[in-house]
Design a protein that fits this description.
Length: 248
């Protein structure tokens, strides 16, 4: 099956797409979603989607900026823009940067299915389904060196799986698989763990959440808040308040 990612800041729309489209019948599988372009850029390397639905209007990084970055990394990625009628002329410009197609909100099930049938037919011509295993770029992958690099550079918002794999001269899929095999964690979990440990220290020091988010390399405060709550089980503000009482 080909892999699909859904990117939209409206959870209701993401849920609607998941529920109403017969993904399996179309030979597709939804492998993940994101609420912002920044969150998507941080997770797309792990998900390896073939098709991406992305809203044209999102905070911090809109669908156009995301599409440019994503297509630069993955030239064969097929992107479907979701747009309101008011943004229709804006959405048409997306075709010029390599976006595959666009769909008007409110979404219509039949229209989406028709587009997906065309897109999957295109995928079968340009990239037949095949196992995602791949070989490395020739040398031995030293996970300890990679981990040390991440510890030193966690504050860089551009730091992600693809960037790091390129830095060390390895194929992205091979790098991701070997990193998990040798470290026991996925690349994104390891990097997020480093960022959240530092975020805890900044919270204890009384740093505001949006400042901390930028300092640890996750400039989207909504995505940062989601990562922090998943890591600590409570919100950043509650953790900071709790820690300040402990200090007193």
């Amino acid at each position: 099956m080909y892999r699909v990612m859904i990117i939209d800041d409206e959870k209701a729309l993401r849920d609607l797409l998941r529920r109403t489209i017969p993904w399996g019948e179309l030979g597709l599988e939804v492998v993940g979603e994101a609420a912002s372009g920044i969150e998507a850029i941080n997770t797309i390397d792990e998900l390896e989607p073939d098709i991406v639905f992305v809203d044209i209007r999102m905070p911090f990084m809109d669908g156009i900026e995301f599409s440019r970055l994503a297509i630069e990394r993955y030239p064969d990625l097929l992107i479907l823009i979701l747009t309101a009628f008011d943004d229709f002329s804006y959405a048409k410009q997306c075709i010029g940067i390599g976006v595959c197609d666009y769909l008007l909100k409110p979404i219509v099930r039949r229209d989406i299915c028709d587009v997906l049938k065309r897109v999957t037919a295109k995928l079968k011509k340009i990239r037949p389904e095949q196992p995602r295993e791949s070989t490395g770029a020739g040398g031995k992958l030293m996970i300890s060196e990679v981990q040390e690099y991440l510890r030193r550079n966690y504050g860089d918002p551009e730091l992600n799986l693809t960037f790091t794999a390129d830095m060390f001269g390895f194929n992205c899929s091979y790098f991701s698989r070997k990193f998990k095999e040798e470290s026991g964690q996925s690349f994104i979990d390891f990097l997020t763990g480093i960022r959240m440990k530092q975020a805890c220290e900044l919270a204890r020091a009384g740093e505001l959440m949006y400042v901390t988010a930028e300092k640890v390399g996750i400039p989207d405060p909504n995505y940062f808040g989601k990562c922090f709550k998943k890591y600590k089980g409570i919100s950043y503000s509650d953790f900071a308040r709790q820690e300040s009482k402990n200090i007193l």
